[in-house]
Fold this protein.
Amino acid sequence: MPSSHLIEIDHVSFGYDASRLILGDVSLRFPRGRVTALLGGSGCGKTTLLRLIGGSHAPTSGEVRFDGEIVVAADRPRMYRLRRRMGMLFQFGALFTDLTVFDNVAFPLREHTDLTDAMIRDIVLMKLNAVGLRGAAGLRISEVSGGMARRIALARAIALDPELIMYDEPFAGLDLISMGVAAKLIRTLNDVTGATSVVVSHDVPECMAISDFVVLMATGGRIVAQGTPAELMGSTDPEVRQFVRGEPDGPVKFHYPAASLEQDFGLHGGGRP
């Protein structure tokens, strides 16, 4: 009997070097068929967590499991097989600018399958139709808007019908209309395909509107809170309230830790040195 969780993060720590820990002893579960949002300020380790799930990085300690199987970044055959079941929407799309819209979406199908050209054509047009851009198949990437580019990247991410779709800041740089379109697409695609979705963002309203479950992270990968959108919005915890309401004052300080002004500027008794 498969677990009710597609992704399991068990006591994972990670740092790019010994002097700076990005994630410290993080444990999380991502339920199958649901949209889970990872919220938090810049630098708290949200995107790093996606890279660990996808096997781009190996944890310093702990385990990442996908459908019960340990993700081993160094095991290339295993990662090739697992990534066939994952889709990734990168923060800035990562589209091939010298290819057409059609060829961008067709790329993973040509790389990972032995389908005929006719079958690839049908699948690409279906995926583009799902994001409302079937009519743009022949355009170059330089000819589309930022919002359209994000939808093209989403069509490419779902080309192989992945069980897991990971979104890295899908709303960044979008206008309000494009943001609403992107949010609706994430929710609709999750419900129609039955995929498991993980959305990394710091955009609270959009994520609260489309997510089944929300995880709020802080510096060092610390889990501040997790629960349904209603539970986080109704939380009385000062740190949670500050983030979901966008308040400038609270437990999260504006200033990065530093020596006192007196020490840095050599001030004594309130006067100049």
